[in-house]
Amino acid sequence: MRLICVGVVLSIASLTVALADDNKGKKDDPSQIGNRDVGGFNCYSIDKEIAMGKQLAGEVQRQAKLMDDPIITEYVNRVGQNLARNSDAKVPFTFQVIDDPVLNAFALPGGFVFVNTGLMTAAETEAEMASAMAHEIAHVAARHMTRQACRAQVANIATLPLIFLGGWGGYAARQAASAAIPMTFLSFSRGYEAEADYLGLQYLYAAGYDPTAAIDMFERMMSLETRKPGSIAKVFSTHPMNDDRLKKAQAEIRKILPQKAEYVVNTSEYAEVRGRLLAIENQRKLRSVEKDTKGPVLRRSPGSGAPADDSGDDHPTIKRRDLVE
Ligand SMILES: [Zn+2]
To answer: Would you state the pLDDT for residue 141?
Structure first.
């Protein structure tokens, strides 16, 4: 009798291990996207998560300046929906564009994703922009924010100040208030970030994009960090955009993403929409110069260093890394 019990216990244990192993294997296999659990233990129901995310999204909409150009917003939403369809997430998504030159994108629990215009000015191809969005979708799919809140025993995420919510690239706001942020949230953490990179690469690939665009985007961020060390460097303290992260992504692409004959790298629509955004920003600059000329003018002498703004249209040429051996 006792032996049987032990046997039953053993087989349940091995079944559990086998299921966990099976899921682990699936997590490395992009053909299993949508057919695997990437969420892990969570103390919130999906419904509760969506409700909290919705509440927070309302807060963002009140505090941030949303882009109101329908061509830009519709396009970004369409790119996002295509990525979401190729992800493990089981919640409906909304993608909104924040009119902010800081390079950033962030996701709230339950599928509310925000993309700064600064991401589009920095990303030179649709695939590069999509790589950042795929990373955010991965945070939602793996339910990182609520898992983190479970660990920290936060009853309702929506009661947290928005400053807790990070983003793909820009932690400037959080950095500014870092003293007030509990470590449990700041450590949102290398593990989750690495997982979002890993799953994001798979979603990017599954949606038909060239996954090496993520590497290009990392390189772009590293060069931005070098160009603007004062304003950018600290931003990466919890999510360093360093060589390790880049090499890890390269290795993962080689290991788990079988080469396809064709990838989407860029689209003419992206070039058009980005051009539209840059034109809007240029118009604004012209208007502010006109305004400025009415008052005292401070001029920078030619060749005295980087431009004072963050329009990002003077990127150095970045060499593409060739992943094919
Ligand atoms: Zn992230």
So the answer is: 97
Residue 293 pLDDT: 73
Q: Which residues are CB-neighbours of 284 under 8 A, at least 6 positions away?
A: none
The rounded distance, in Å, linking the Cα atoms of 31 and 221 is 30
Q: How far, in Å, is the centroid of ligand 1 from the Cα of 227?
A: 22
For residue 141, the CA-to-ligand 1 centroid distance in Å is 12
pLDDT given at position 289: 85
Ligand 1 centroid from CA 246, angstroms: 14
Q: Report the separation in Å between the CA atom of 139 and the middle of ligand 1, taken as the mean of its atom positions.
A: 7
Instruction: Specify the residue for token string 């980005």.
Output: 274
Going by pLDDT thresholds of 50, 70 and 90, the confidence category of residue 62 is confident
Span from the CA of 167 to the centroid of ligand 1 (angstroms): 6
Instruction: Calculate the average pLDDT of the chain.
Output: 77
Instruction: Using the predicted structure, report yes or no on whether residue 248 has a pLDDT greater than 80.
Output: yes
Q: Residue 35 pLDDT more than 60?
A: yes
Cα 23 to ligand 1 centroid, rounded to whole Å: 22
Model pLDDT, residue 1: 41
